[in-house]
Amino acid sequence: MAAVAAATDRRPKATKGRWPVEKLGVGIGWRPEIDLTVERLPGVDFVEVVAENLHVGHLPESVLLLRERGVPVLPHAVSLSLGGAEPVDAQRVAHLGALAEALDAPLVSDHVCFVRAGGLDSGHLMPLPRTRDALDVLVANVKAVQQDLPVPLALENVAALLEWPDGELTEGQFLAELVDRTDCHLLVDVANLYANARNLGTDVTRFLDEIPLERLAYVHVAGGEEHQGVYHDTHAHAVLPEVLDVLAQLRARVDPPGVLLERDDDYPADAELAAELAAIRAVLG
Amino acid sequence: MATQWTPTSAGSAGSTPEPGLEEQAFLAGGPGRAAEVAVVSLVEAGAVRISREGLVSRVGGPGHGWSPLQAHVLRRLPLPLGDVISATASSAEAQSLGRHLVDRGLVTPTLRRQVARRTRHLLIAAAVGAVIASIALELPFELPFFSVVLAVVGSVVLKRMGRPLTGAGRRVVKRLAKVAVSPNRLALVAYNGLLGRVVRNVHVWQVLGIEPAAVATLRRRRRNSGDGAGGGGCGSCSSSSCSSSSSSGSSDSGGSSCSGGSSCGGGGGGD
Amino acid sequence: MTRPQRERLAAAQAELLRALLADGAVPEGFDPERVRVEKRALLSKRRGIVEMLRPDVAVELGERFRPLFDAYAGAHPKEVGTRFREDAARFAEWAAARGELAPPRKRRWWQRAT
Predict the structure, then answer these.
(1) Are A282 and A261 in contact (CB under 8 A)?
(2) pTM for the complete prediction?
(3) B79, β-bridge pairs
């Protein structure tokens, strides 16, 4: 791994400054099924890997190749359960940190959610109650994790199919306060935002007004489908024009440091992924 | 990219159409070879992709119009290349392809091959017995001499009768050999196998642009020969790729490798 | 420092997951229809992962895969510490124990295919 790090330019580590994240550009989620596709797609400025699927000692050849080319590889975690009632599993944090160092990543990310509770594993990113209680626990967990991570942490809004009762804050307020109290960065998923607008009536404009866009690390774009009147954020379908509209609304307020396309299943032909990246570029202007 | 190879030199019989490329591959290298052709033809058609590490996955929807073997491949994905090949080689579809080739008179029926082999063994044993008996009993010289001559001639004839491919089958493979040159990517796979060579130091997988790590999943299966390497090489099964028709690592892993001595094992799937 | 909040949150999150993953009642204040949709989505995701990890099992069960997996999943919510690969293996064992899936056995016939 040292060889890889030495072979690439050592970029300055992002610190907890006002504009912490370097320009990332347009990227795509690296997945084992489409490794060659990701390598060959024109204009992939950065990629993201699912942290839980990689072993620091045996990084895939394709990921190492991308690093050698100087393409930033950002570890994206899905299992820290930062909003869970239990303290965060130190091993998962250590793995994420080790991966960030092995990949020389400028930052890592996970979600504003809980995954496990009461001995059960949902296998999914579950929304948090937007209460002061939940925020206090989340803030405490995030602060603890930040202590153990070698790089800054960005947190992503999730798509929810259900809403907790008795919410005390809007989603935007909840995220804004989280950033304020932990100094974390934001990873805004415009497809999740669209999903919540569709399914739960979240006000997109208000959300974008309320979150601190100056703490935006990058943006996720993904596809989904409507099923029996409910929009499902599947990452297995094409990106809807409506999702790109949300991206355009965000772009009207800020030039995001990076935008990344997530595709996790039913991978289409290379040309189709290239077209989705081109559509994202077109929105960014 | 062409997904179907159209035979340029039709069979001398003229009446029967040339078998499809999967069938030709089966004749040239057994069910594993046919599975390789099924996978590579799907790649060429843009219906599946093979990752750098050898993970084979579907591109887009399931599609239609596939051969039974191709449809089997698509149903089993995603899987590492070596596992796809072995699972497909061991599938009911591959078996049925084998039976079909027997029905078409291209593959020798199992029973005939077994009878030929056993008769040959008996003949050799009888000749050896005759020689020993004639020495022990000091019988005249002519008896062992003629029994050995008979055994040698009979053995040659029976060996020919017990060959895995019929004359027609061997002719199909010979015609395949003629078109298995570089632009005919699928014919290359059918005749040589993915691990076979086009020329010295150039393997078929290199011509196809498959990554070395992906090819390693084929070789890994071969090395794990404890649970079954060397499935069904027929005919010109000289390249190492025949062995990629070994068992998959999952629950459908199979028994021992072919022990029949010939490159084609015991022969005859379910018939 | 956050102990009382954690305790309240733990109880609420556990109650929701029991409703979504096992046979727990819909917690007070939740829209039962939304809980049903989420429950189905989580089940579908889990089923999809098992299908991807064990295509052999899914192929062998064919049409029966979905109802069988759903029955298995309802009775065996995925517990903390269980990997998806283990979940898939347990489902295969469960199906085999019910006689729905042929137990793993040595197959030799195909290797003898000519």
Answers:
(1) no
(2) 0.82
(3) B56
Q: How far apart are CA B189 and CA B185, in angstroms?
A: 6
Q: Give the C-alpha separation, B147 to B144, whole Å.
A: 5
Q: Hey, what are B97's tokens?
A: 């392809």
User: Hey, is B62 helix, strand or coil?
Assistant: coil
Beta bridge partners of B203: B197
Residue A273 has pLDDT above 70, yes or no: yes
Dmax (CA) for chain A in angstroms is 53
The token pair that represents A147 in the structure block: 């202590």
Q: Are A84 and A141 in contact (CB under 8 A)?
A: yes
- Report CA-CA distances (Å) from A168 to A134, A165, A210, C2: 10, 9, 15, 18
Question: For tokens 């189905």, what's the residue?
Answer: C40
Q: What is the pLDDT of residues A228-249, one digit of tens each?
A: 899 999 999 999 999 999 999 9
Phi, psi of C47 (to 5 degrees): -65, -40
Q: Does pLDDT of B70 surpass 70?
A: yes
Yes or no: say if C19 and C42 are a contact pair by the CB < 8 Å rule.
Answer: no
Instruction: Establish if A161 touches chain C: CB-CB under 8 angstroms.
Output: yes
The reply to whether residue C114 touches residue B264, judged by beta carbons under 8 angstroms, is: yes
**CA–CA gap between residue B172 and residue C27 (Å, rounded):** 70
Closest CA to B58 of A236, A29, A124, A42: A236
**DSSP secondary structure code for residue C107 in this structure:** B
* Nearest residue in chain A measured CA to CA from B61: A266
Residue A160 DSSP SS3:
coil
ipTM of this predicted structure: 0.88
Interface test with chain A among C2, C9, C36, by most A beta carbons within 10 Å: C9
The helix/strand/coil state of A156 is strand
Instruction: Give the pLDDT confidence score for residue A20 in this predicted structure.
Output: 56
Q: Check CB contact under 8 Å for C107 and B107.
A: no
DSSP letters of A68-101? HTT--EEEE-S---TTSSSPP-HHHHHHHHHHHH
Place of tokens 């970029």: A11
Chain centre distance of CA A114: 15
SS3 A25: strand
What is the pLDDT averaged over residues A193-221?
97
Q: Which of residues 27-46 of A touch B (CB under 8 A)?
A: 32-37, 39
Which of helix, strand or coil describes residue B237?
A: coil
B105, two tokens: 């008179």
Q: Please report residues of B whose CB lies closer than 8 A to that of A62.
A: 51-53
Nearest of C87, C83, C76 to residue C50 by alpha carbon: C87
pLDDT tens digits, one per residue of A245-262: 999 999 999 999 999 999
Question: In whole angstroms, what separates CA A104 from the centre of its chain?
Answer: 18
Mean pLDDT of all residues in A140-145: 98
Which residues are bridge partners to A227 per DSSP? A230
DSSP strand E in A82-170: where?
108-111, 114-117, 120-126, 153-156
